[in-house]
Every structure is written in C-alpha cells, then in structure tokens.
Amino acid sequence: MKNPLLITLFVIALLPLAVQADTFVLKNGDKVKASLLRETADTYVVEVSLAPTIRDERVILKKDVVRIIKPAAGELEFKHLKDLLPAPDGLRAEEYEQRIELLARFIENFPANKDIRKAIAMRDELRAELSQVQDGAVKIAGVLYPAAELRVNQYELDARVEARKIKDLVNAGQHLQALRAYLDFQTEFNYTKVHLELIPLMQKLISLHFSQASQWRDTLDFRIEEREKGLMTMAPGDRRASERAIDEEKQTLLRLYRLETSTQAGWVSMHPFCKEALDHTVQFAKSELRKIDNLLSKDFTDGGAIYREVYQMQKQGADDKMLRDKVRILQKLGVPARYIEKFALAL
User: Fold this and answer.
1) Statement to judge: residues 190 and 249 lie in one domain
2) Where does the chain have alpha helices with state H?
3) 290 and 170 in one domain?
4) Of all helices (H) and strands (E), which one includes residue 240?
C-alpha cells in the first residue's frame, strides 16, 4: 500500500501554478504575499494566509501597487519535495520508487527551475539506494547495510535500531517511555559499542529525572501546608468539595503507583503530590546511575564484536571448542538467546 504522506506530496507537487502566492509590492513599501482570486478594473481581490489553516480575502487597489512578483515555476513544488531525502531508516523498495516518481515528475514538469540540479541529484541518490535495497540492503541509523553485513552485524545493528527509538522518544519529550525503553535496552544490549554511545544521553536524562523527583519530594510537606492554608480560606461547601477531589486524586495516584510497581515497570509515573512515587523515583534513579558507573568502571567487552567473530568463525568452519568458548562469552555478556541460537553447532 502506498504511503498516504507521499500521495499527498504527489498531489501538492502537481498543483497548478495558479494556487501559488504572488507578491504584491505596494507604493508604501509593504509586500503582500497572496493568491489572486479575481480582479476588477480598479482592484485585486486576493487571498492571504493568516495562519496555516486560516485564510482571508483582501482587496488591494491597483493604484497602490508598484509591481507584482510571480513565483518562479516549480518553486512551491520543490519546497514540498526537499524532505524526500535523506530517506528514513527501513524504507522499502516501493517507498523508494514513490519518492523517485515524485522527483521525476518535477524534473519533467519544471526543467528550467533553479533547483533542477538538486532534484536530479536527489533522484539519482534515491535510485542508487533503491538498487541496494533491492539487493537486500537495509538502512539503519542512516547507513545502508548490504545483506551480508546485516547477518554478520545483526546484534549490533539491532542495538542501533533500539537506541534510535530511545533517542526519538527523548527528542519527543516522552521521557518516562524513554527511560523504560532503556531498561529493556540494558537487558539485551548492555555490552555493546552502541550502548557506550547512548550512555551520556541517558545519564543526563536520569539525572534530570532524579533532580525533579528530589525537588518535589523535598518541598512536598511545604506545598501540602500551603494547600491546606488555601483550603481554609474557602467557603465550607467549596472546601469539602476540594478536599474530596484531593483525596480522590491521592487514591488514584496511589493505585497507579501500586499497579506500576506490581508490573515491575522500574520507572513509575511521577506526580508532585504522590510521595510514594517520588521516593521510588529518587531511589531507582540512584541505582540506575550506579549501574551505569559500574559498567563504565570495568574493562569493557564489546558483545557486537564477539558476535561478529563467532559468526565468521562458524562460517569458516572453526574448531567447535573455540566456538563454544566464544559463545560462552556471549552468554556471560547477556546476549539474548535468539542471537546465540544461530550458532547451534557451537552449543
């Protein structure tokens, strides 16, 4: 099935030039960017964009206009095509073909456009990547890996995929989800080069989480007292209603905390008035930072490198005992069974 976003871009890319905004230069120096709807003997009736989804009509007197600047052919179309490159991770062959088709249409329709060379270069780069994808390559963390490299680097590449997901969560402000995903990452990819690259970001995030929880916990009693003072200034009926609402919220937060700890989530949802969750977060953050420090203080063995070594050894028919010794190292490093099972002969 075709990507709806690309279909939308395709439609936009082929819109007639009439929908593009002209620039009306006025005698007073103002410039009005607007689409011409109609004109009379003395006026231009135009549509101006006040916001992405808000438009309004405006009448401009012809006597006030010095000149009208028309956009270059294809200017708007190319603006909507620029993000087709770089191609994102994991793009399938048919999705590459859709992107190439969009650029090909632009090149055909606007051969004199100032960005035509860029469009051609983008098309050619996508074609080159498509050729590799058709041969089994996959883009991971912005790099295209041929099928052969995918197999030998499977463990490390999977780590890169998961690390990218965590970074995306952090960038999206979904910090709790990122912290929980990091726990899973540590379980499966603790001893990888990718993990070492990810650690600075996670140390910063955990420290920020710790600081927020500590601040809320240390000021909790004061804030409760201030809230009580505020309640005492209310009318009796309003105070009782507010107290009921506060108690209901407290019970809801406590149930959520107990649910999350019962499922061994590790990281729990914080709230400035839930002492249990704040205490838990402070202690858990400390333990997680210590865990990272312990990892960094030891001699580091790269599980990804060992995995590649075992893969090559088995492929080359190495001695079974040597293979078993290497597989034991992978097991000690906590490499999940689904990766080790590939070396069945060595087990």
Assistant:
1) yes
2) 4-13, 75-79, 93-109, 116-134, 147-152, 154-171, 175-189, 193-218, 220-232, 236-262, 275-297, 303-315, 320-332, 337-340
3) yes
4) helix 236-262
The tokens describing 179, both together, are: 């912290």
- Per-residue pLDDT of 302-328, as tens digits, reads 999 999 999 999 888 888 888 889 999
Within this chain, do residues 293 and 164 fall inside the same structural domain, yes or no? yes
For residue 125, give its domain range. Answer: 77-146
Statement to judge: residues 84 and 69 lie in one domain: no
Is the domain of 212 the same as that of 173? yes
Burial level of 26, CB count in 10 A (0-12/13-18/19+)? middle
DSSP structural state of residue 150:
H
Rounded CA gap, 312 and 305, in Å? 11
Residue pLDDT, tens place only, 219-278: 999 999 999 999 999 999 999 999 999 999 999 999 999 999 998 779 999 999 999 999
